[in-house]
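Quick one: Olfactory receptor from Odocoileus virginianus, structure tokens please.
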Amino acid sequence: MDTHNRSAVEVFALQSFSEEPGLRRLFLVLFLLLFLGALAGNTLIVTAISLYPGLHTPMYFFLTNLAVLDIVCTSTVLPKLLENLAVKGGTISYQGCLTQLFFLTWFLGAELLLLTVMAYDRYVAICRPLHYSSWMGRPVCALLAGSVWAVSAISTSVHTALMTRLTFCGPNQIQHFLCEVPTLLRLSCSPTTLNNVMIVVADVYFGVVNFLLTMASYCCVIASILRMRSASGKQRAFSTCSSHLLVVTLYYSTVICTYILPGSGSSLENGKVVAVLYTVVSPTLNPLIYSLRNKDVKVALRQVFFGVQ
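--- reply ---
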């Protein structure tokens, strides 16, 4: 059956950050700068890692995947947000809303899985260094990266398919600036029990399980670093993990507030701010975190773009 015919709502109205013209212009400039910064920063990271042979290692292979995810995530959300800030009374079609939901859920889930894989990579490198070349060879890295994209794609396909079974008969005002599963479920006039069950399952797997695996990996890593006798060895080991641990902390803190604790009492405006953090601010900061705190990346950037060591 055509999913379009199942829904009486053909267009959804999206909320903006402000109805005051001056603030709208301010937000428009701010988000445009963040969007351009995210695109430029992550593109530089991908280019430097691809062209600099010294970074052709598993850790930077996964970092390339993270940069690509950040690029496509911001590109899924920001263009529509900028349009709604530029034109008062922004709307999105039913098909466009489901499309945005599909890709946003896909990329967010993939990023959570990828952060777990990156934590495992650091665990093997520091806690099992003699096995690193065999445990993290190219076929293994390709399999892990492919699984990250595939598993998240399967999950978002299930959520989107379940969403197409629902009927939206009004109102059509989404209390957000983007289309997400929780916000759309509030507008449905048909039973959403199965959708809610699948949300819990996805939250437990993508959020709780991967968070625990990531924390377990870093507990082992930190314990191994503390057992090192050499101060320089400790510093080198910690420097390879600190950037990723900072990204993990930033990303999980925002996603958990949005998906794991949706009833924590936060206002709708706070929900918008949190969504901006993980869809806009985090992708913009990630390249800065990895480049400013990583000597290898800084060397690669200078070599690739300026021709100096």
